[in-house]
Amino acid sequence: MNILFIHQNFPGQYKHLAPELARMGHKCVALTLRVKKPTDWKGVKILPYKIDRQQGGGVHPWLLDMDTKVIRGEACFLAARQLRDKGFVPDVIVAHPGWGEALFLRDVWPSARIGLYYEWYYGANEAGNSFDPEFAAADAELDRMRLRIKNVNNLLNSPVADMALSPTQYQASRFPEHMRDKITVIHDGIDTDAVRPDASATLTLPDGTILTQQDEVVSFLNRNLEPFRGYHRFMRALPRLLKERPNARVVIVGADGTSYGAAAPKGQTWKQIYIDEVRAQIPDSDWERVHFVGTLPYGAFLNLLQVTRAHIYLTYPFVLSWSLIEAMSAGTPILASDTAPVREVIKQGQTGMLVDFFDADGMVDQLVNMLDDAPLRQRLGRAARAHVVTHYDLKTVSLPRMLEWIETLAAMEPSALPE
């Protein structure tokens, strides 16, 4: 088959699927903004496209997001048309529609079967609106309408898709019923052979300190340190945590930017805002045991999970982080926020412990209990890994199911765009 992948940051969610399809002998091509020149990657021919149009002036702020998506959709359409005019006809197109690239694919190739990655459907009472009162919208009624407009891209992509993928049941459940009927839930998958416990693992900190499983390591990590992933709640628990655990080393991973939600006030970072909030409550001798390490190479990230005695994962009701499933695969004991996406994988007292997102004292109480109870940690870590191996393993679960999904998609009659 001819298979076309489209993702603005390819390979993204297709980093395992695309190479496997190429290995099986399919002709795989990818369109992406990530590269500047054509290249080959693991048997996939990667082609760049570019955006020439700028956002128009005078657009309502609620429409800026959609304006960007239409611009990207147009740019991707032009690149796809060039491919078509050179004779490339995909049997299957697999695309992430989140940035608008998939909007006009059916116009280029009406006979292609199109599978889309349904990652998130916005709701009025969820992350970014009213979940966290500290960051609630100034006008809740207006914000509900703003979020409704943000779903226009999702709704416009609905008739484009023949089938869809979502990585978790929670994410799939957010979509309206007429879109949910197309969704198959398949997680992207974790290589549990690579992400596994290792009693001999070490992590070298920037100051030269070497951590092992003999150290009382507490880890917290985000792509970016921000409220959406509970950074502010963790930092507010830090003074008491350090006081009660005089031997603990707290390793905090994450960059200074913003992945989700609102950016920090101009000229500031969420990281520094919450350091400034709690720093006066922490003696210098305790602060020396807090290690902000920025972003880590993947190998060092795995080593951190392997030496961690207790890992904290907090999130708004939102997309579930790969890092949580990876921590489970590494056999890391986990204390996580009792929020909807987390409850899909963390069962209280079985595969981890849950705590109210807003309860800093409860977080410390449970964390202290975990750190004092080695048999509990061992039981939680073993059960967490077993759960991931059974339900999320890349080679035995996720990838075979994705390949089956591709076969089903390829056998379908392509949908027609409504007149």
Question: What's the layout of helices and strands?
Answer:
Layout: E1 2-6, H1 17-23, E2 27-32, E3 39-41, E4 44-48, H2 64-85, E5 92-95, H3 105-108, E6 113-117, H4 140-150, H5 152-157, E7 163-166, H6 169-173, H7 177-180, E8 183-185, E9 203-204, E10 210-211, E11 216-224, H8 231-244, E12 248-255, H9 270-278, H10 284-287, E13 290-294, H11 298-307, E14 310-313, H12 322-329, E15 334-337, H13 340-343, E16 353-355, H14 360-372, H15 374-391, H16 394-410
Parallel strand pairs: 1-2, 1-5, 2-4, 5-6, 6-7, 7-8, 11-12, 11-14, 12-13, 14-15, 15-16
Antiparallel strand pairs: 3-4, 9-10
What would the principal axes of the Cα set say about the shape?
globular
Residues in β-strands, percent? 15-25%
Indicate the structural class: alpha/beta
How far the N terminus sits from the C terminus, by CA atoms, comes to 29 Å
Regions with pLDDT < 50 over 5+ consecutive residues? none
Radius of gyration: 23 Å
Number-wise, the strands total 16
Q: Report the sheet with the most strands, covering strand number, pairing sense and barrel closure.
A: 8 strands, mixed
Q: Output the strand order for the largest sheet.
A: 3-4-2-1-5-6-7-8
**What percent of the residues sit in helical stretches (DSSP H or I)?**
25-40%
Q: Quickly count the helices.
A: 16
Mean pLDDT: 95
Structure description:
This protein is an alpha/beta fold and 419 residues long. 37% of the residues lie in helices and 17% in strands. It has 16 helices and 16 strands. It has helices at 17-23, 64-85, 105-108, 140-150, 152-157, 169-173, 177-180, 231-244, 270-278, 284-287, 298-307, 322-329, 340-343, 360-372, 374-391, 394-410, and strands spanning 2-6, 27-32, 39-41, 44-48, 92-95, 113-117, 163-166, 183-185, 203-204, 210-211, 216-224, 248-255, 290-294, 310-313, 334-337, 353-355. The strands form three sheets. Strands 3-4-2-1-5-6-7-8 form an eight-stranded mixed β-sheet, sandwiched between helices. A six-stranded parallel β-sheet has the order 13-12-11-14-15-16, with helices on both faces. Strands 9-10 form a two-stranded antiparallel ribbon. Helix 3 (105-108) links the parallel strand 5 and strand 6 (113-117). Helix 8 packs parallel to helix 9 (270-278) and helix 12 (322-329) packs across helix 15 (374-391). The longest helix is centred in the first third of the chain and has 22 residues, at 64-85. The two termini are 29 Å apart.
